[in-house]
Structure prediction request, 253 residues.
Amino acid sequence: MRVSACGLTDAGRVRSHNEDCFEIDRERELYVVADGMGGHSHGEVASQMAVEAIRDFVRRAEQGDDTWPFTYDARLLRHSNVLKAAVRLAHDQVLTAIRQDGTLHGMGTTVVGCLVHDGMAAVAHVGDSRAYRMRDGSLELLTQDHTWVNEQVVAGFLSEEQARDHPLKNVVTRALGGESEVAVDVTEVEMESGDRLLLCSDGLTTMLDDRDIERCLQKQAGDLECLCRDLVAEANARGGHDNVTVVLLQVEG
Prediction:
């Protein structure tokens, strides 16, 4: 099984600078999208710091570093534990940077990451950056947004339609750099030939609904770079209110 990947980030039509960051490490089959928050350059600092921390820990773990910073979760595969620990370490590094530099107070970042090993994708996320799987022409959301609005939907207090246009839809309840401790959601997904996995910031999903994304990813013609450009262009055509970042994976037998 071989995985090819492409990523693209864009400031959008409204924001003056881009606070998103992404990573594609083909050698280790690590893929990450981070969406920084905090205004000015602070969000950019947080997202870049998170991506680098995740990448560095995954590399150390691959090289046999047996220093395990958190409790090992026996319910998860080893590479899932590696990714979960990497995200928690990224959170700690963002917190440390804030404590050391008061001008960074208020910065944070959401993150979604994927680490592939032996045909199994570990997907970890904090915040409202998302992961999707496209299989046999159908799109499946693999993550649940850590937002106040989504919590109201899950509890039955808001409908999906009400949530989409709710004034508090962008209020996240979890982020790296927020509370002293962070809960990282991890999902293990078996991959099959023909699958496409999409990691994206909410700059895509606030402009496009799941049906729009599904239609874009159903296109068989064109390479991954073209598909990434199509997704970003469509988000910008709908208004481009936020930075938009996509990382797209294609599984081939």
